[in-house]
Amino acid sequence: MNVMIAEDELLERKAMRRFLEEQFSSLVVTAEAVNGRMAVELAATHEPDIILMDIKMPGIDGMQAVERIQTFLPSVHFIMVTAYDSFDYAKQAMKLGVREYILKPGKKEETIEAVQRVMDNILEEREQHKQKEHNIKLAKQLLLSYIIQDAPGMTNLLNELYPGMESGFFLVIEKQHNEAFTLPAEELSTWTADDAIVNQEEGRQLIVCIMSSRHLPSDEPLRLAKRIQYERGSAFLIGTGKPSTNKGTLSRSYVEALVHLQKSKENENVLEYETHDTLERIREAVQEADIQRAMPPMLQLMDRPEKDRKMEELYYSIKQILNDRRIDAPGKDPDDMDSAEDWFELIRWSCMKIRQHYRSLNKMERTKAWIDENPQASLTLEDAAAHAGISASYFSQLFKTTTGENLTDYVTRHRLEKAVELLKKQAYSLKEISYMVGYKDPNYFSRVFKKHYALSPKQYQNTILKK
């Protein structure tokens, strides 16, 4: 177990460290703090199991440090150390949940007993947590069998384990050539943000149930199935079931997955159920600049009898997505798109442009943050463009597009807003504020300020004082 000692007296801190290391072979002192503020910072960095906290320390005292640490490290155990045998201190510590209290100079046996009690409590808590995790795993396996069999009690158990569930679906996986395999839930969880239940029996067929607290898109089962094939190899055949938002009908997704697995054995590929929202899935994929997600429903759309009407609708949907992001749409009209290659190229081009748009927005956000954090810096268009890693002309155009104002106006507005904040504090002279917001000439600063606020900085400050 890891221990941190918070004590402002060097000799006492070193003596306590030596004492703990000599008496408890399983304890490792990972950090020493000389005051309460340092104790809070080191607790966040080292996350100790036990903290020996001196109550009387400069700045933030031990009680305040305990209260702050508990906000981000609620599982840590504290042992309070003090030279004062005060009931008030003990009462305050108990309110914070601290149960161990050592007086200094204390008896060796009392210190050993206090530390041992805390260690025993930690071991007991860990065992309880381990047992709880084991019970939850068993309950999830039971839930899986309940759903598959559509058994009574399924909904109650589902509500208990996943009270915030919004949707879920099934995958049924087999490996070609009748080979046995496993797919641990821990491995599967690295490929999806949702919770996965995997049947634990080894064999040719594996059942996976995905539970989500969000409304899953209709193509999420296909995405996960392809990810599994990518990570584990194409020898896996995967049937997908449609996401269900109704807890009572979740078993249908399992049946769908079985049916599609059977079909996939004929084609040796992952099959997706037919859906009525193919257009919407393409739109979602293009909006997220996901070319691979857009292609399968595109193929489906092109095979349908109403292809011409639907493809024209898709074209104008994509054009609207591009216009919303101020991206010029390609010159071709729907009537000029004769082949699948033309449509694939439109999707590819649109996704590429949208991805560039998102990257540019990220660059703009980083550059704006840099400007905001350095109001006192002498800033030129070339400086900002260099920080963003793009040309000055492109930066100027993109900055105006994303912020609605040019760089000069943005910097001026931000500097003046900063100046107002400093004026309200009434802690600096006008000359100091001028320099702090990037103006080397206080007179010029006053003229710019008055032009923007119709008051000089001094007049503005006087209005604050009157209030």
UniProtKB/TrEMBL annotation:
Residue ranges constituting the Response regulatory domain according to the UniProt record: 2-119
Domain of life: Bacteria
GO biological process: phosphorelay signal transduction system
GO molecular-function terms, A-Z: DNA-binding transcription factor activity; sequence-specific DNA binding
Domain annotation HTH araC/xylS-type: ranges: 365-463
Keyword Phosphoprotein tagged: yes
4-aspartylphosphate modifications at: D54
Pfam families (UniProt xref): HTH_18, Response_reg
Alphabetized InterPro entries for the sequence: CheY-like_superfamily (IPR011006), Homeodomain-like_sf (IPR009057), HTH_AraC (IPR018060), HTH_AraC-typ_CS (IPR018062), Sig_transdc_resp-reg_receiver (IPR001789), Tscrpt_reg_AraC-type_HTH (IPR020449)
Gene3D superfamilies from the UniProt entry: 3.40.50.2300, Homeodomain-like
SMART domains xrefs: HTH_ARAC, REC
Record's keyword terms, sorted: DNA-binding, Phosphoprotein, Transcription, Transcription regulation
Designated name of the protein: Two-component system, response regulator YesN
